[in-house]
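Subject: for your reference before the review

Hello V.,

The reviewers asked for a structural picture of the protein, and I figured it would be easier to keep everything in one thread rather than splitting it across files. Below is the amino acid sequence we used in the manuscript, unchanged from the supplementary table.
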Amino acid sequence: MFVGKYLASKQTLAKHMYIHTREKWFVCDFCDKDFSTKGRLKQHRRIHTNDRPHACEVCGKSFTTGSYLKTHLKTHSDNRPYACNLCPRSFKYPSSLKIHLVSHTGEKPYSCDICGKAFAHNVTLTQHMRSHSDHRPFTCDLCPQSFKSRSGLKTHLRVHSGERPYACDVCGKAFSNGTYLKNHKVTHSDYKPFKCDLCQKSYKFKIDLTIHKRVHTGEKPYSCGECGKAFTQQGHLRCHRKTHSDEKPYACDECQRSFKTRCGFKQHYRQAHTNERPYTCSVCGESFPFSWRLKRHLMTHTGEKPYTCEHCQQSFTVKAYLVLHERTHTNEKPYICGICGRAFSSGSCLNRHATTHSEARPFTCDHCPRSFKIKSDLTRHLRFHSNDKPYACGVCGKSFVERRSLKAHMITHTDERPFTCDYCERSFKYNICLVRHRRIHTGEKPFSCDICGKSSAYKKVITLHRRIHTKEEPQSSGICSSGV
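And here is what came back from the structure prediction:
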């Protein structure tokens, strides 16, 4: 028995009855999918034939249906007739307004059957479900990357082609992905609708507010089943799990380096082998390959340093910097080299150290015979040829080749000594000075002569000592080079 629904015409009623009877007379001869009307079959077949008869007169882009073209035409118009009653935002489409309104109500009717996480929209739940699967059927023909969705592959291919079809109507900057453009447009607005009720900080995106609140609550909902370590974000947990395995399944075809995580490989590939920098600072124009780098950079303009060390009250722009800094107090070194057993306080230090076990130097200077294991070392080296010193001191005007050299120099203008010894409470301006000083207390001598075995707490001592064996004459220099 059917529900008594009223329809405008007999033809509309006939179409509606297909819902109940499941009669579908029109079958696609390409994929056997069936449809209730001939018109829907005709539209569907265009997917297989790539027939796009409806073309935009403004930009030339073509579509399979007139309704898709009609929706697209609104992108060429600034008319936003659908306004939100709760905030100043307005939208071009009623569906966009409907999606936006959920951000005010907090309603999340769509739940994941696997982990219980709830979402405001069904499409977001569908995307989330892919996180529980490692299946990536869409592979790039030009590089090793693969993707869970066809749209992900389509967006990635623009990295190789250089295509950037999404242009900002404010500044003209173009992007390869519509989401990149959407995130970029927010930088042109000061509107931050998501406010923290504990510290009054506000955010442009709700996810940023959710993550921020965990600073106050201490909540770390994602924990590792192997070691129990907990994290504020699921992505951080996924990356951490790889540290329990020596497997590095993601190999770069360009330079033969391999990585434990897809995000590590993706970060390496974009930095070392492409020049894509889709995230641009609206204040100074500097662009970045990743959104988190732009977010971190923006704090240099605002002066914001929300993460404070409990031991010495030093503040940081990024929580990861605070975690690394706190290890100078605890002397924690969780990253261990699988070849020689040496331990490091950060993954980046371990990665740099790992290159010492390899002779490969893929990055070669065009001006001299020198080559480097890491691209950043080549970039710094090239500045010596060009005499480029982009980092200038705002106090005395002195300029430097590297940002870290400027940072170290800035301390000379202050009496601040943030690095304190736990053994004797002597304090230092630089962390490296504290590291060297600690060896007086611990007796650690990490540098040894490979000829006679003599060891020392300082690299410079061993460098000078080796000349006893090699009979090498010391070279005079106006610059003192000290070793760790």
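For the response letter, the relevant points are probably these. The CA atoms of residues 52 and 64 lie 4 Å apart. The first strand starts at residue 26 and ends at 27.

Happy to draft the paragraph if you're swamped.

O.
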